[in-house]
Amino acid sequence: MIRLGLCSVTFRGKSAEEVIEIARANSLAGIEWGGDIHVPPGTPASRVKEIVGKCRAAGIAIPSYGSYFNVLDHPPENFAPVIETAALLGAGTIRVWAGWVLPDEMTPGQFEKITSTSWEIAEAASRKNIKVAFEFHDNTPTQGGDNALKVLKGIGHPNMYTYWQAVHPNDYAESLGNLEKVYPKLVNIHIQNNDGEKPLPLGDYREMWGEVLRRLKRKDFNGYGFFEFNPDNSPEQLEKDVKLIRELLAQS
């Protein structure tokens, strides 16, 4: 079952309480809390528990923690507060970054750092029954299905997964191909379009999103589709996007 949620990073200028209210107003099932503004690693336990309580009161789950841990640049021991905060949130997945280097420019040493650190953090998170998943993003080693699978294979840990998003939304075939390739290791998807410089309207890619949702429903995908950035990062645009995706789900 595809459940719909919200990435809190969409509304970095708003409080956690405002983000919860926006999610509730749109009847979204969950929030992926961002580790940059709203719930940084090491946030006092009292504040994390307060956010958890307010989510529960609004009927909102916390399936994922969107961390900014970068396995290329950060040592594995720095992941401990990320796990601790995710556990306090009750998140079942921690999203991480593979680093800011193009796949074709990645050196053997960088690949070794990425895979070794990823193995260590995946192992550490597994002890808390938390999955670790890569951001599926352009200009990173996990740009595109083939590259993401290469990294995951190099890590070789069963607790390492990936997200998916339309990296190049104007390339319809590429986006769908990427989805098929990474599906066996897919935990959640980000619902947004971006041309590498700015978010693009979801409505301009209605056909692609309709096919994405049809494929996920046929596969009985049991994860979240998190609404991320929109052209003006406004609650009004989010409301329109949620309506569109729900229409497409009903048709799929």
CATH topology-level name:
TIM Barrel
**Mean pLDDT over the residues:** 97
Radius of gyration: 17 Å
Query: Uncertain segments of ≥5 residues (pLDDT<50)?
Result: none
Named at the architecture level, the CATH assignment is Alpha-Beta Barrel
What portion of residues belong to β-strands? 15-25%
Q: The biggest beta sheet, please?
A: 8 strands, parallel, barrel
The run of helices and strands is EHEHEHEHEHEHEEHEH
Name the CATH superfamily classification: Divalent-metal-dependent TIM barrel enzymes
Distance between the termini: 12 Å
Q: Look at the structure and give the CATH class.
A: Alpha Beta
How much helicity do the residues have? 40-55%
Number of DSSP helical runs: 8
Main β-sheet, spatial strand arrangement: 1-2-3-4-5-6-7-9
Note the overall shape.
globular
Number of strands: 9
What is the total domain count? 1
Category from helices, strands and their pairing: alpha/beta
Provide an overview of this structure.
The protein has helices spanning 16-25, 45-57, 80-89, 108-126, 145-155, 172-182, 206-218, 235-251, and strands at 3-7, 30-34, 61-70, 93-97, 131-134, 160-166, 186-194, 199-200, 224-227. It is globular. An eight-stranded parallel barrel has the order 1-2-3-4-5-6-7-9, surrounded by six helices. It has a single domain (3-251), classed as TIM Barrel (Alpha-Beta Barrel), CATH 3.20.20. It has eight helices and nine strands. The mean pLDDT is 97.
Notable traits:
alpha/beta, eight-stranded parallel beta barrel, 8 helices, 9 strands, 41% helix, globular
